[in-house]
Amino acid sequence: MAPHEAAAVPPQGPGRLSRRRLLRAFFDRPAVDVAPELLGRVLVRRLPDGTRLAGRIVEAEAYEPGDPASHGFRGPTPRNASMFGPPGRLYVYFTYGHHWMLNVVTRPEGEGSAVLLRALEPLEGLPVMAASRGRIDARDLCSGPGKLAQALGVDRAQDGEDLVRGQVVWLEVGAQTPRDRVAAGGRVGVSVGVDVPWRFVVTGDPFVSKGRVGPPSATARRSPPSTR
């Protein structure tokens, strides 16, 4: 077992997902290595009333130091400070005037590297997610970065949360998606670095977003969170 995995995780059978948390070392690597290995892991959000919401990650994008499409390209600012670590933290930002985006911070502290979580398969707390989203179809609850943030009730208040030891939002081992089921391609909603194959998805998964590779469309910029 790799040193960044939780210890003594039993073999995963169909439908079995480990609730052990991912360790700090898992995140202390380049985003391009972490992103494909996040597929199949479980993102958990505990609401103030104790309700547990959870979803299996099926789509993620990597953003690295020196990447012109990254928020960290020009260095740390008050807005992107969480992106610079330490690894295993949550970086949350607001975009298009409507959408919160959840990112998993990677690499050693100070480097500015993260993985954008683009889509989840909802697993727990679907009625709460549906109420937050104003949608019934499970495939439309978390199939996009703005959608999943809305479904999980995440905003700037959760920026900087510890995904390893925190009690508000964290990542569990789940069951990593086999590499032969992972496809890589261009990132969505970027106008530079479009051809870099740093978007990773679970092949054929119905919960993957329908985002268009390349710059965001005018419609996407105007859309409210519930329709993105």
Distance between the termini: 39 Å
Any idea how many domains?
A: 1
Write down the overall mean pLDDT: 88
CATH superfamily: Methylpurine-DNA glycosylase (MPG)
Report what the structure shows.
The structure is a single chain. This protein has about 230 residues and is α+β, with helices and mostly antiparallel strands. It has a single domain, classed as 3-methyladenine DNA Glycosylase, Chain A (Roll). About 15% of the residues lie in helices and about 25% in strands. Strands 1, 2, 3, 4, 5, 6, 7, 8 and 9 form a nine-stranded antiparallel β-sheet that branches. Helix 3 packs across helix 4.
List keywords for this structure.
228 residues; alpha+beta; 3-methyladenine DNA Glycosylase, Chain A; 5 helices; globular; disordered C terminus
SSE order and pairing:
Blueprint: E1 18-21, H1 24-27, H2 31-38, E2 42-46, E3 52-63, E4 90-95, E5 99-106, E6 113-124, H3 126-133, H4 145-152, E7 169-174, E8 182-185, E9 199-202, H5 218-222
Helix pairs in contact: 3-4
